Amino acid sequence: MSTKHAEKIKASDYIKVVEWSDLDGCFIGSAPPLIGQCCHGKKEADVYRQLCDIVQEWVDLYNKEGKSLPEPSAGKDYSGKFLLRTGQELHRFLAVRAMQTGESLNSYVVKMLSSTSGKRSRKSSLVKDRR
Fold first, then answer.
1. What share of the chain is helix, strand, coil (3-state, %, to 5)?
2. What is the pTM of this model?
3. 3-state secondary structure of 103
4. Cα separation of 86 and 90, whole Å?
5. Alpha-carbon distance 28 to 22, whole Å?
6. Strands (E), the chain
7. Domain tally for the chain?
């Protein structure tokens, strides 16, 4: 049992994500892994406040009912490394593209992921409550 599970988990232990949705024409709020898209609005600050209230309600409800909460996401450290499994064909394709650009496979894939991630969401805020 981790330290966080030994003590009561708080709403501030979860990252709050507010991002613009071109499809919906508004900001959408979520707090992974606790809750998916759960609120929306025209103003980012209003959606953030609404999201904070919803996360607090969920955490209170889980604690009241004695349910286990998902692992907290705020304050988590990331190493910058993860293992990615691809099929052989995709691996070969990416390796050849990397060679064509004179980059290492790792650098090429990082560049491709970065450019794709940036296009996916023009406005996105990852915010967490202050501790």
1. 45, 20, 35
2. 0.70
3. coil
4. 6
5. 10
6. 15-21, 26-31, 35-41, 124-128
7. 1
- Per-residue pLDDT reduced to its tens digit, 23-60: 999 999 999 999 999 999 999 999 999 999 999 999 99
The closest of 68, 71, 72 to 129, measured between CA atoms, is: 72
Range(s) of the domain holding residue 32:
3-128
Structure token digits, residue 93:
């394709």
Rounded to an integer, what distance in angstroms lies between the CA atom of residue 104 and that of residue 112? 12
Q: Is the backbone of residue 80 left (phi > 0), alpha (psi -120 to 50) or beta?
A: left
No. of H helices and E strands in the chain? 4, 4
pLDDT at residue 8, as a whole number? 85
Other beta carbons within 10 Å of 129 = 15
Neighbours of 17 (CB within 10 A): 20
